[in-house]
Amino acid sequence: MKPERRGVLYEFILFGFFLASKIMRHKAHLMGKENLSRMPTPVMFAVTHDSYFEVPSLSRIYYALKPRPDFMVMVKNDFLSGRYLSTNYGKKNRFLRSILLMIDRLGLPLAIFRKLKVAAIDRPFVESFSRKEEDLRREISGQLNQFKESSARGISTLIFPEGTTWGYGGLKKIHSSVYHILENTFQGTGRKVFILPVNIKVDRLVKGAKDVFIRIGQPVFFRKPKDEFNRTLFEILQQLHTITFSQVAAYYLKRLAEMKQDAGRMVVFHKGLFVRNLEGILLEMSRLVRERALPGFDPGLANRRYLADKTEHFTKYCLKMQYLQKKRWSDRKEALLLNVEKILANYSVREFRKANPLGFCANELASLGEQTVRPIFDARLR
Prior knowledge:
Elements: H1 7-23, E1 26-31, E2 43-47, H2 59-64, E3 71-76, H3 84-88, H4 94-106, H5 108-115, E4 118-121, H6 133-152, E5 156-159, H7 177-189, E6 194-202, E7 210-216, H8 226-239, E8 242-243, H9 245-260, E9 268-269, H10 271-290, E10 296-297, H11 304-320, E11 324-328, E12 334-338, H12 340-343, H13 352-355, H14 357-366, H15 370-381
Parallel strand pairs: 1-7, 2-5, 2-6, 3-4, 3-5, 8-10
Antiparallel strand pairs: 6-7, 9-12, 11-12
């Protein structure tokens, strides 16, 4: 099936996302670009989803596609509510919220989402618990049918299989929307829907521009029982994880805080020692990457100058967020102290990523196998 001609407006909207990524100072790194050439159709772009921050960088995938398939986007239902911007942004700023509400009322976001062929689906999470489970399943089943019918016509789908940005760090549970679309399409029409796995990781704990790592896997088609299917998709997406500086640095501070929390004294953070220890930790972790015991790295971490620059921006971020605090001694020397309580603070699943981003990033690394990661850090910290 030939892709539909979307026209100038559609291309302008996509360019707007690309421009937004520039304004937000994204430094996008597209890895696995070769997997975007001559893809089978229809295909499901199965994309990880930690926050809305990285969404503008998805435009890089669109511009790298050859050819570009016609596709729909599966999103949560508040995208088409008519109040998307004012509901999700500007909550802490009344003036900004008023502006976003005015834009919502003009209908511009809704018009853009419809032009992008955004289709909404109910999420069976906390906000839906008050509804009857049977009614919710029936409604979701009906909503999924439009994606199945589109797939049968050769239209591809962009989907976030985790279904939510809430979490404690690391890949979240895979919900069954991908399985249902693929299986129902195959059973109903005999047509194979391939999955293109995409894992996005943001190097978020550095002050200033953010590196966004987009790792794209090979298109795959497989059929398995639902639970096994979801586990397989989880494993595929996990293997495409990119280990960032923020994950490594955050886990370092978290382990240091855990080891010192009962010491009953101030914990001094030594930047020079931190860098030297990270060099040794990264050297050992790179060996595990080569042995496939861990997924891929930010390739820049092998460069000392790059590492030192990241450390500087990470320290500034931690001071701003009060994970590190300055202490002036009587001889006018300054020291950086670890804020153990803040680093180890826990929150609900809905609040955790925003309330403790350092803990979130540390958990991202731990999710790859803490029994593998922890000994490497502990050997240096002791």
